[in-house]
Amino acid sequence: MELLAIPQEPQKDVAQPSEYIGAAPGDNEEETRLLLRFAAPRDPVMVANWVSFNVIDTERQDWARGWAKLKEYAEREGHARVPYEHKEGAFPLGQWVAEQRRAFGAGQMSGRRAARLEKLGMAWSAADARFQENLAAARVYFQEHWTLCAPRSAAALDKLVGQWLSNLRRPGALEGHPEWEAALLAVDEDWNPSWPTEWQRHYAALRELVRDEEGPAEVLPGFTVHGMDIGKWLARQRKPEVWAALADGQRERLEAVGVTPLAAPAPVEPDVSAEPSTAPVSAFERGVAAPAQYKARTGSVTVPRAHVERLEDGTEVKLGAFLSNSKSRRAKLTVDKLRTLAGLGLEWAATEGAA
After folding, report:
1. Which parts of the chain have pLDDT scores under 70?
2. Would you tell me which of 9, 74, 127, 250 could form a disulfide with 246, CB atoms 3.0–4.6 Å apart?
3. Cα separation, 27 vs 209, whole angstroms
4. What is the 3-state secondary structure (H, E, C) of the chain?
5. Three-class SS of residue 228?
6. Beta strand 19-21 with 309-310: parallel, antiparallel or unpaired?
């Protein structure tokens, strides 16, 4: 460095070569070495970092590469909260950051490295590290199911993401961690709805099914997604009484995908001008009406035991059984009932009446 400060004779005809400082990168790795070119202006901060890493306190090349990638990320994003699954190019920066947190928590990191990472905004909280790892699993689940309203048994990336999300929905679970809530909302704005999570899972599947369709949503009962019968669920949501019981936010989401409630049936007003019905109402009256109708059609009251007569109002009468039972119980029938039966031509009823 002292020799560089000594004035030299100008050598206009000789080109000054540029040299890379440090070990050459391996296969499929990016060039991260400093290009030593004295004629070009340099950022003093960059020069200071290079001297610190390569002259004063030399670092391993792999750690220095991770630090450089984190520096690029922090300058671009404005923070050093790297998602666990994030990569800078081919470098797994999220996993590298998680490993630095683990080393720091285990007391295996030098103070010099810790200070360099802290200058970039590194947070050492183990809770933050666990959150980032679980959030990575939640992103994978969302890509497959289109919602973070996972059942408690759901898992992704070997993480029990369903139970984790359920725990975060408890009142006060995110207190003091607004950045956690913001990260979850960035994945799914309905990750913590005020209505049941099961309803939200069905809605997310419906929304995905009709995403590219125009007009009202039409999914027939029996069409299942991830084990959920979306068609049956949709038919239920459209019922007027179910639609009325939904929250405003639920109705808004259904309307956004073209779902509308079914029209409520018009109330039937009684026709006061209609004549009173003469249809038989009691079992005996229906029983008497059946042989009368049978006799008018066949000219006989001899009815097979298994015969069933259908009346004009749709009522079915087991006529053969009615006549057989009435005959066996004729001693218990009133005189008026026996006369009615006798009037149909049933001789046993007339004989009983005469007796």
Report:
1. 1-59, 126, 215-216, 266-281, 351-355
2. 250
3. 44
4. CHHHHCCCCCCCCCCCCCEEECCCCCCCCCCCCEEECCCCCCCHHHHHHHHHHHHHCCCCHHHHHHHHHHHHHHHHHCCCCCCCCCCECCECHHHHHHHHHHHHHCCCCCHHHHHHHHHCCCCCCHHHHHHHHHHHHHHHHHHHHCCCCCCCCCCECCECHHHHHHHHCCCCCCCCCHHHHHHHHHHCCCCCCCCCHHHHHHHHHHHHHCCCCCCCCCCCCCCEECCEEHHHHHHHHCCHHHHHHCCHHHHHHHHHCCCCCCCCCCCCCCCCCCCCCCCCCCHHHHHHHHHHHHHHHHCCCCCCCCCCEECCCCCEECHHHHHHHHHHCHHHCCHHHHHHHHHCCCHHHHHHHHC
5. strand
6. unpaired
Q: pTM value? A: 0.50
3-class SS at 162?
A: helix
Q: What is the pLDDT of residues 216-233, one digit of tens each?
A: 677 889 999 999 999 999
Inter-CA distances, 340 with 87, 145, 344, 352, 353, Å:
95, 72, 7, 12, 10
Query: Which residues, 6+ apart, have CB-to-CB distance to 246 below 8 Å?
Result: 195, 237, 254
Length reported for the chain: 355
How confident is the model over 139-148, as pLDDT tens digits?
A: 999 999 999 9
